C-alpha cells in the first residue's frame, strides 16, 4: 500500500504539468514543420543556390585553364 502512495504524487504531477506541456510543444513543432520554409529560410536557400551556381562556374573556368596550361593535371590527381 505504501508503494502505491509513493507513486501517486509523481504520476499526478506528470499528468497535470508535464504531459500537457509536452503535447503542446510537440504539436506546435509539428505545425511549424508542416508549414514549410519561412520567408527567411527561403531567401537563404535562394542565396545558397546562387552561390553554388557561381562556384560551379568558377570550377569549370579553372578546369578549362588547367586543361590549357597543364593538360596532364587530371592524371596527377
Automatic annotation (TrEMBL):
Transmembrane regions listed in the UniProt entry: 6-25
InterPro entries named in the record: Phageshock_PspB (IPR009554)
An annotated GO BP: regulation of DNA-templated transcription
A Pfam short name: PspB
Keyword vocabulary terms for this entry: Membrane, Transmembrane, Transmembrane helix
Superkingdom of source: Bacteria
UniProt-recorded name of the protein: Envelope stress response membrane protein PspB
Gene this chain is encoded by: pspB
Amino acid at each position: 500500500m505504501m508503494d502505491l502512495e509513493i507513486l501517486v504524487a509523481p504520476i499526478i504531477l506528470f499528468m497535470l504539468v508535464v504531459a500537457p506541456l509536452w503535447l503542446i510543444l510537440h504539436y506546435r513543432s509539428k505545425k511549424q514543420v508542416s508549414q514549410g520554409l519561412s520567408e527567411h529560410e527561403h531567401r537563404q536557400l535562394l542565396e545558397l543556390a546562387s552561390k553554388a551556381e557561381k562556384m560551379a562556374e568558377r570550377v569549370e573556368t579553372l578546369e578549362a585553364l588547367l586543361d590549357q596550361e597543364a593538360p596532364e593535371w587530371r592524371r596527377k590527381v
